[in-house]
Amino acid sequence: MRATTYIGLVLGLGIVYAVVMAKGGDYTIFTNVIALAICLGGTFAATTLSSSKVTVIHVLSALSRLFVTAGVNAHLLADEMVQLARKARTSGLASLNADELKIKDGFLHKGLQLVADGVEAERIEQLLRLESEILSERRRAAERMFRLMGTYSPMFGLVGTLIGLISMLKGLTDPRAIGQGMSVALMATFYGVLLAGLIFLPLSGKIRTLDLDERVLRDQMLAGLLGIRVGENPENIRETLEAFGSRRKHT
Question: Using CA atoms, how far apart are residues 69 and 121, in angstroms rounded to an integer?
C-alpha cells in the first residue's frame, strides 16, 4: 500500500518535471507563490468550511496508514489466529489474553477480548460487524474530504486566473504589471488542475482502496475469532484465513 503510494507520487511529479525541463526548459517559470497561495489557501479554506474537526482526524489517520504505518500481514495473522485457537482448545477461552497479541490492531484486540470473556458467537459477530462499519465510515469520510479538495482546487485555480487577469487589465500601461498578472493567471490554473489530478483525487481513490482492503482484513479477523469461539479445528481456521488472504490480493 505504502510502496504504490510513493511510486505513484514520484512517478507523477517526475513526469511533470521532465516535461517542464525538456529541451532546456526552466522550472522557475512554473513557480509562483501568489498563485499557489490562492489555490492551496482557497482549497483548504473551503474544505475546512464544509468539514468537521473529527473528519480532519480521520484524514490524518488515513494519511498515516498510506504513508507511514504498514498494514497487517495476512500470513502472520493466520499464524497467530491458529496459535490462539490451539491455546483455546488446550487451556480454554479464558486463557486468551488480548494484551499478548503480537499483531497490534484495535479491532483484533477488542474481538479477542470478547472471545476470552465468553461472549456468545452471535453477539461477537454483531458487535464486531458494527465496529467494522464504523471504522469503514471513517475512511469514507476521509475519502469524501479529498474528493472535495479535488473539486475545489480547480475552482480556486480559476479564481486565481481571474485575479491575475483583473490585475493585468488594471496595469495595461505597466509592462511589469502585465507580466505579473499573466503569470498569476496561468499558474493558478496550472496548480489547481495539477493538485486535483495528481494529489487530491488520486488520494481519494487510494483511501477507497484502503477501506476495501481493511474491510477484508477485518472480515478475516472476524472469521478467525468466531472459529476460536466455537472451538473449530485450528487447521480449518487456517484454511479459512488463507482463503481471505487470497481475496485480499485481488482487492
Answer: 31
pLDDT of residue 127: 96
152: enclosing H helix or E strand:
helix 121-170
Supply the pLDDT for residue 171.
66
Integer-rounded Cα radius of gyration of the chain: 25
30, three cell numbers: 512554473
Residues 6+ apart with CB under 8 A from 135: 107, 214, 218
Higher pLDDT, 180 or 55: 55
d(CA 220, CA 242): 9
CB 248 within 8 A of CB 74: yes
Cell numbers 510502496 correspond to 3
Residues, the chain: 251
What is the C-alpha to C-alpha distance for residues 194 and 10, in angstroms, rounded to an integer?
14
Rounded Cα–Cα distance for residues 223 and 77 (Å): 12
C-alpha cell at 20: 517542464
Determine contact, residues 245/74, Cβ cutoff 8 Å. Answer: yes
Query: What is the CB neighbour count within 10 angstroms for residue 15?
Result: 11
